[in-house]
C-alpha cells in the first residue's frame, strides 16, 4: 500500500488550477507551487479557496477527492468521480445493516476499540503524572472505563450500547484536562466537558479540528475499499451523514486526543494561537491551523506495529487497513478455521 498525500489549502482567496497534470496553486495571480496529481489522493480546502472547473474534472477523472470544509474544519461538500468498489460489497453492507444482531455485534466492536484506546491513554497519563492526586484520579477514571468495557457484552440493544459509550466518553473527557501539563491548564481545559458546535474552549476547538481530519481520512479509506460511508452500524442513519465514517473513526479519537495533548504540552500551540468569537465560540488562528496540519501529516508518516497484522506500517495507512478488515467482516468471509470473520478494532499502546 502506498501512503499518498493529502494537500491542505488554508490561505483565503487561493486559486487552484490544472497545468500539465499538475495542480498549480496561485495567490494574487502569482504561482506559488505545483504539485503532481499522481502524488495526491485528496485535496482539502478550508474556507474561501477557488477551484477551476477543468481542475475539478481532472481530479474526478484521476480519483482524487476534492473536499470542501469551512474555516473551522466542518464538512461542507465532497467532489469525486464515479463510485468505486464492487456493488456486491455495498449490497452486502446494506443487507448486513438490516440484521439487528450482526449490526449490534459490529457496533460493539467500534465502541470497544474506542474505550480500550481511551483507557490506554488515561493509564499512560496516570503513570507519567507528576502529581500523586492526578495519577490517582486518572487511575480511577481508567478503572471506570474498564467497567464500561465489561458492560459491553450485556448491551442487548443499540440504545443501551450508545448509553455505555456516552458514559465512557464523559469519563474520558473528565480525565483529559488532567493530561495537560499543570502550568497550561489555565488556558487548556474542557470547561464543561465536550462541546462541539461551537467549541467553547481552546482544548475543545483543537479536538474538533483534529477529529475532522480523522473523519475525512476515515471516509476516504471506506470509499477506497468500496464501502458506502453513509450506511453505518453504531451511528444512526441520517440524510447527508457519513455514519460509517463516524463508526470507523471512533477508535482513532484517542489517537487525536494524544496528538492534541502533545501539541499543547510541547508548547507547539499556545493560548494566543486561538481566538474567541462573538457568542463564545473558540477557533484556531490561521497560522496555528497550518501548524496543526503539518504536525498531523508528520504524525501520519510515523511507523508503528499493527497489532493484528504484526507488521510495521505508517499510521496514515491504518484507516485503510481497518476499512479492509471491515469489508471482510461485512462480506461474511471466514477465517483460517472456517469461522465468520469478525472486525477487530485498532488498539494503541
Automatic annotation (TrEMBL):
Cofactor requirement: Mg(2+); Mn(2+)
**Protein origin, superkingdom:** Bacteria
Specify which residues bind Mn(2+) according to the UniProt entry for this protein.
165, 235, 250
* Name of the top EC class for this enzyme: hydrolase
Q: Which InterPro entries match?
A: Cas1, CRISPR-assoc_Cas1, CRISPR-assoc_Cas1_C, CRISPR-assoc_Cas1_DVULG, CRISPR-assoc_Cas1_N
Q: What Enzyme Commission number(s) appear in the record?
A: 3.1.-.-
The alphabetical list of record keywords is: Antiviral defense, DNA-binding, Endonuclease, Hydrolase, Magnesium, Manganese, Metal-binding, Nuclease
Q: Which HAMAP family match?
A: Cas1 (MF_01470)
PANTHER family attached to this UniProt entry: CRISPR-ASSOCIATED ENDONUCLEASE CAS1 1
Q: What is the recorded function of this protein according to its Swiss-Prot or TrEMBL entry?
A: CRISPR (clustered regularly interspaced short palindromic repeat), is an adaptive immune system that provides protection against mobile genetic elements (viruses, transposable elements and conjugative plasmids). CRISPR clusters contain spacers, sequences complementary to antecedent mobile elements, and target invading nucleic acids. CRISPR clusters are transcribed and processed into CRISPR RNA (crRNA). Acts as a dsDNA endonuclease. Involved in the integration of spacer DNA into the CRISPR cassette.
Q: How does it assemble?
A: Homodimer, forms a heterotetramer with a Cas2 homodimer.
Instruction: Tell me which family the UniProt entry assigns to this protein.
Output: Belongs to the CRISPR-associated endonuclease Cas1 family.
This protein is called CRISPR-associated endonuclease Cas1
- Gene symbol? cas1
Amino acid at each position: 500500500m502506498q501512503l499518498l498525500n493529502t494537500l491542505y489549502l488554508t490561505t483565503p482567496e487561493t486559486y487552484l488550477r490544472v497545468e500539465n497534470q499538475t495542480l498549480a496553486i496561485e495567490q494574487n495571480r502569482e504561482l506559488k507551487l505545483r504539485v503532481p496529481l499522481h502524488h495526491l489522493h485528496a485535496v482539502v480546502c478550508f474556507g474561501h479557496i477557488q477551484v477551476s472547473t477543468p481542475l475539478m474534472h481532472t481530479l474526478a477523472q484521476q480519483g482524487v477527492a476534492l473536499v470542501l470544509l469551512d474555516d473551522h474544519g466542518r464538512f461542507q461538500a465532497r467532489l469525486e468521480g464515479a463510485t468505486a468498489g464492487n456493488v456486491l460489497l455495498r449490497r452486502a453492507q446494506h443487507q448486513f445493516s438490516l440484521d439487528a444482531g450482526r449490526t449490534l455485534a459490529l457496533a460493539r466492536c467500534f465502541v470497544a476499540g474506542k474505550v480500550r484506546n481511551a483507557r490506554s491513554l488515561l493509564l499512560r497519563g496516570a503513570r507519567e503524572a507528576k502529581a500523586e492526586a492526578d495519577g490517582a484520579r486518572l487511575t480511577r477514571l481508567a478503572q471506570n472505563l474498564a467497567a464500561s468495557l465489561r458492560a459491553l457484552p450485556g448491551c442487548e440493544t443499540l440504545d443501551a450500547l450508545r448509553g455505555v459509550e456516552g458514559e465512557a466518553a464523559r469519563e474520558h473527557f473528565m480525565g483529559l484536562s488532567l493530561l495537560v501539563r499543570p502550568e497550561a491548564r489555565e488556558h487548556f481545559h474542557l470547561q464543561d466537558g465536550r462541546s462541539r458546535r461551537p467549541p467553547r474552549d481552546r482544548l475543545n476547538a483543537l479536538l474538533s479540528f483534529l477529529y475532522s481530519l480523522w473523519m475525512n481520512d476515515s471516509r476516504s479509506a471506506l470509499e477506497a475499499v468500496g464501502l458506502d460511508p453513509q450506511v453505518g452500524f453504531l451511528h444512526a442513519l441520517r440524510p447527508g451523514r457519513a455514519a460509517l465514517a463516524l463508526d470507523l473513526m471512533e477508535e482513532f479519537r484517542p489517537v487525536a486526543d494524544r496528538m492534541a495533548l502533545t501539541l499543547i504540552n510541547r508548547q507547539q500551540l499556545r493560548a494566543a494561537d486561538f481566538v474567541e468569537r462573538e457568542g463564545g465560540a473558540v477557533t484556531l488562528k490561521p497560522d496555528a491551523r497550518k501548524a496543526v496540519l503539518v504536525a498531523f501529516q508528520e504524525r501520519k508518516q510515523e511507523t508503528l506495529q499493527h497489532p493484528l497484522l504484526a507488521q510495521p506500517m505508517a499510521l496514515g495507512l491504518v484507516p485503510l487497513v481497518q476499512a479492509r478488515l471491515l469489508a471482510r467482516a461485512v462480506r461474511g468471509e471466514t477465517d483460517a478455521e472456517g469461522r465468520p470473520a469478525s472486525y477487530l478494532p485498532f488498539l494503541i499502546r
